[in-house]
Amino acid sequence: xxxxxxxxxxxxxxxxxxxxxxxxxxxxxxxxxxxxxxxxxxxxxxxxxxxxxxxxxxxxxxxxxxxxxxxxxxxxxxxxxxxxxxxxxxxxxxxxxxxxxxxxxxxxxxxxxxxxxxxxxxxxxxxxxxxxxxxxxxxxxxxxxxxxxxxxxxxxxxxxxxxxxxxxxxxxxxxxxxxxxxxxxxxxxxxxxxxxxxxxxxxxxxxxxxxxxxxxxxxxxxxxxxxxxxxxxxxxxxxxxxxxxxxxxxxxxxxxxxxxxxxxxxxxxxxxxxxxxxxxxxxxxxxxxxxxxxxxxxxxxxxxxxxxxxxxxxxxxxxxxxxxxxxxxxxxxxxxxxxxxxxxxxxxxxxxxxxxxxxxxxxxxxxxxxxxxxxxxxxxxxxxxxxxxxxxxxxxxxxxxxxxxxxxxxxxxxxxxxxxxxxxxxxxxxxxxxxxxxxxxxxxxxxxxxxxxxxxxxxxxxxxxxxxxxxxxxxxxxxxxxxxxxxxxxxxxxxxxxxxxxxxxxxxxxxxxxxxxxxxxxxx
Length: 524
Ligand code: CA
Hints:
single chain; 524 residues; alpha/beta; Arylsulfatase, C-terminal domain; 3 domains; eight-stranded mixed beta sheet; four-stranded antiparallel beta sheet; 16 helices; globular; disordered N terminus; disordered C terminus; binds calcium ion
């Protein structure tokens, strides 16, 4: 049920009355929203989802005290597009931010922060923005330019100045966010988006964690040596740990007489460190570099060496992130804000931790279509534990609006998660998800594709310069190694999934369905 805007005015009046007579607000709402989103942080590297690799005690606190979504997905597994889906509650086809390389977000369009602001909320965003245009709909914003820097990072302020801060980005984003919450007008509810760059490539650790995980040998994922049989697009990507991971930029094996494609970028990143910091950084990597160039591993040995380097650096960056999520949770508790605040933790998509031999994201396969999602709920929402319904990042906008008592506009594609947070299991909850990835040709060379995922099956169409379909039975083949498309016995399910795909493309007004390649295929 949608609440009318009148509710928020009532809440505001109630809250003001409580505050003025000094008693604590026990009413349901107005609810504050603290939305923490990281970049490329995958559920495999979060111990409340997966205990194989790292421990994330603070992230786990959110899941333990609140809810964990076990079927959480994105609509387009890439930074900017994911952010646009989240802000608008719409698929890329309607928010028009299709890819990072050619698009600028139309900042004039409807977003949930604008609607919350109109309803009396104080709104803020701090950290990664990555949408080409400047933030709109926020009382306060301070964002990093583009991908930003981990070390001594620059920020763009609301005055459109660029300032440089000292320290590690994950800590600074948290500092700025808590400062804003502290200084807000305490008479009105707030919504802050804390957007980390962490855990994005090239995984530069906080200096105090440079030596963490160095004694850990991570287990290899089952599909590390995937041969991509029956999967053309999977065979042609450029996100392979052995073949595409840059030995300097990604694995930090800096050497004067070794040149790589991204060496210059790497030097500029670590060039931001002060001489003292740089000395500390170099000291940590020096013995690893020495051993690497002495041994010069090749083939399988090199692939596994790169995998371990990747896992260790990624895990170090997660550690700082987990610390900082803990700081936010502690702060909210100290301030008594935990009672009436929804805390959301998610990422802009999942990521490959060596599955299929890969790093990066983009594909509609499980590891990158999924994204972690845990929430600590305000009082009045008793739901605990796992929520199994399929949810997508287009659902966040309607959820926050309903929670704030604001009408959800009809043109939003997402569904409010509020009924699920109340412990309801709506019978008519969605039974399929739509996905579309557009960025090709571009970095990592993942072909354009769209598809539909149900509880059990996934149908994907790779198009543009190829015309390949893939079908997976997720129940029997959760690692998506066996492409069943065109195989005997799968005609009926393929037909059903194609009909569902067409229905979703019509619903979301996605014109790709009408491209010549698809018409040709549909006519077969
Ligand atoms: Ca990302």
